[in-house]
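Q: A reviewer asked whether we had any structural model of the full assembly, not just the individual parts. We don't, so I'm hoping you can provide one. Inputs are below.
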Amino acid sequence: MPTLPQFLSQAFNGIALGSLLALIASGLSIILGALGVLNFAHGAMFMLGAYVAFVALGAWGSFGAALALGALALLALGFALERGLIRFYYRRPPEDQILVTFGLGIMMVEAVRYIFGPLSQRVPLPGWGQGIVNFGFFLYPLYRVQVIGMVAVLLLAFYVLLYRTRIGLVVRAGIEDATMVQLLGTNVQRMFLVVFSLGAMAAGIAGVIYAPLSSVIPNMGEPFLVECFVVIVIGGLGSFPGAVVGGIVVGEILSLTTLFNPAYAQAAIYAVMTLVLIVRPRGLFGTLGRA
Amino acid sequence: MTRVIKAAGAAMDGGVGAPMIEVERINSYYGDSHILFDVSMAVHEREVVALLGRNGAGKSTTLKTLAGAVHPRSGTIRFEGAAIEALPSHVIAQRGLQLVPEERRIFGGLSVTENLELAALSAPQPLPLDDIFAIFPRLRERRGSYGRSLSGGEQQMLAIARALIRRPRVILLDEPFEGLAVIIVQNLLEVCRALVAQGQTIVIVEQNVRAALTLAHRTYVLNNGHMVFEGTPEALRAAPDVMDRYLGV
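A: Here is a predicted structure for the entire assembly that you could use as a starting point for your response.
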């Protein structure tokens, strides 16, 4: 049996991992809810953020610069992709949308593999993130605490944007009924552009923040993408609170199961997802029914 | 120039002004099924036009085509002189042609106030919320409630209020009384009469022929996507064959 400090430490890991999942999944979920497009390239966008961190930290040694550059680069990429490609697929069948975003993801991964090689890269912890926090009865790495803090600030910013601004009002209405938003005189296409770009940016920022926690490799986004799908199903499609709670739930299940038997971690999240689907088919916070 | 012509027209025609909407031989489809066949109609300023017909006659499709939710494959729609049949629906709404859809389509996850704020977003001079709440006091009481928690009658009030807050030039009302209790229908009819008295132009689609005829200045009857009758409510009442064959009244 694990000791209490081990358990608490792993529970904290669950929050750190879960908050990152929440950040990535909230973008994925809102893109799916508002645009109706399941973005299979979302995991690759997260990976691109991590590589931006690798390059920026190598060049300037500044984590702040890496964060800013990661955010801007993915925002610009999201903007360009929505205008240049994704918007032509809104009226196409879902299988076309999946093929195009899946293909985009593969191209991103292969482009990175071509440029940086298939081997994993190390991204150092920022200077201010090195150290250990003493919580009394267990020790915990400082940077992981900072990860939780940074993601909490970002999620709060997302919340304010969604629930306290005009564009947030349009996004929330558009998730329910984009046609009616359009019939009330607001151009939803512009909102789609904002949502896709910000969703890509959130994935990129998550990649930068995650980079020092693990090794950076071209296909690192794949497990995150799959886990984010589980987060969305548990939390409810298109629901921001659902993505946050679902992220923490999945993060905790992965971390705590690992404590007992790592082999069961992946199976455990699907077991919980199945349970949620039986009890609440629309997810914990979902109001949308979708086939 | 235009204003003078409108005023002259109004003087000649008992308060009804110049043509606002002119529909010429439109053909609309849902996918491959042909719904509207060479439908023509006109709506004048300050006029209430009732669009009648049996279920599936094409009434809702006509309103949706006017609002740009369905684009006709042929024919023209002019609104205040400009062709709008190819414009996206948000541009048509911005020009002042406002659909209140049949299913009401209230945003369930938004509060009553947020539903109204969203509707007001793109309106150049929206009505103040207080004016809306003066028309529908019930909505003031429920302003913080989620759309999904409203009763059917409250949802219909909100659907009409969302249109009114935009100060539209024309309101397209699709089955506003459907499935509502008699007392609420009377309440909504009073609101509609007050709007008509203020000179609001309205196109109304309604299964409740009697209610529609009390409001309308002019009526059109659709049957299987074809326009089969045009005239005043009196003329329609005086045509029992039309009432019987196409409306089942």
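A: Points you may want to mention in the reply: The first strand of chain B starts at residue 19 and ends at 30. Chain B touches chain A through 24 residues (CB under 8 Å).
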